[in-house]
Amino acid sequence: MRHPHPLRSTLAVGCAAALVLSSAACGDDSGGGSGGDKPIVGLITKTDTNPFFVKMKEGAQKAADEQGVELQSFAGKQDGDNEAQVTAIENLISRGAKGFLITPSDSKAIVPSIEQAKQQGLLVIALDTPTDPANAVDATFATDNRQAGKLIGQWAKAKFEKDGKQAKIALLDLNANGVSVDVQRDQGFLEGFGIDVADNNKIGDEKDPRIVGHDVTDGAEDGGRTAMENLLQKDPSINLVYTINEPAAAGAYQAIKAAGKEKDVTIVSVDGGCPGVDNVKAGVIGATSMQFPLKMAQDGVAAVAAFAKGGEKPSATAGKDFVDTGATLITDQPQDGVDAKDSAWGKQNCWG
């Protein structure tokens, strides 16, 4: 991943203080960007270091080149950095962008800024993480995150039943903000495993005795390790670990291995990135639900480009306000009744 070019002095304070920016975002202070008259399309991700968002940016840039628009990319300093995303939206409005794609760090807190952008005529599309409420944006291009969680829950249930084991479950979530993607994956996993969450849309309210507890990871490897250490101290008999994403899973495995329990604990996750698929092959992760961020970003840029060229906004009445970009279970330990692809297929298709 390349480093950004130096920011011009006229924008350095406004951009560098609040945002991690790509060269496209602050590389030209003329307002028109390096593409001159090209319509500006924004991409605002949670971070620019998570491989998931790196792949998303790759897809967005490819689509922007194909569509003849200029991509301006922004990211927070870490997952949960709502302030940086607010500033990014303000910058895109001031530069005359036609619209933007955003993976909200805080699904609720970002809504007023999105509403401001829509009032200025921008098309706004959420990628990966829905806003709260979901109709705050014009459309959402994302994985059905509850279904992604359900797939790994079904796989784990089948595996534990086949092995005749009683589960002791640890759940490694994102953060304490209740971001929609976090809740949906968590609750989908529990539903897939057969734990009743029908009337529960909050993380941590379950009463099932199989659940040891939850901890937060910020979706990062270090966070995954710390959260796993905390939960193993609470109950060393944990034998099934759900993680919000694959970096958290990698950290969890470090803690499990350090405790000498790597042969006794099954980890499931969501993402399907190439490093995650490698960890499936290595036996670090038992199963993961693959997402397709490249497709999310490509389709999102195409929608904004079409709007910029005189097309219409996606319409809820036409069924275009939510686009499910799919999820595929990846495992080298197939279970009866659970559709899956192996790690070889996963390596060929990771985040494609």
Morphology: elongated
Q: pLDDT average, as an integer?
A: 87
Radius of gyration: 20 Å
Poorly predicted regions are 1-35
Strand content: 15-25%
Give the ordered list of helices and strands. HEHEHEHEHEEHEHEHEHEHEHEEH
* C-alpha termini separation: 18 Å
Could you walk me through the main structural features you see in this protein, from its secondary elements to its overall organization?
The protein has 352 residues and is α/β, with parallel strands linked by helices. It contains twelve helices and 13 strands. The strands form two sheets. A seven-stranded mixed β-sheet has the order 1-3-2-4-5-6-12, with helices on both faces. Strands 8-7-9-10-11-13 form a six-stranded mixed β-sheet, with helices on both faces. Helix 5 links the parallel strand 4 and strand 5. Helix 8 packs across helix 9 and helix 10 packs antiparallel against helix 12. The longest helix has 19 residues. The protein is elongated and about 65 Å long. The protein starts with 8 loop residues before the first helix and ends with a helix.
Q: Would you spell out the secondary-structure blueprint of this structure?
A:
Layout: H1 9-16, E1 20-21, H2 23-26, E2 40-45, H3 51-67, E3 70-75, H4 82-94, E4 99-102, H5 111-119, E5 123-127, E6 139-142, H6 145-163, E7 169-173, H7 180-193, E8 211-216, H8 221-234, E9 240-243, H9 246-258, E10 266-271, H10 274-282, E11 287-290, H11 293-308, E12 322-324, E13 328-331, H12 343-349
Parallel strand pairs: 2-3, 2-4, 4-5, 5-6, 6-12, 7-8, 7-9, 9-10, 10-11
Antiparallel strand pairs: 1-3, 11-13
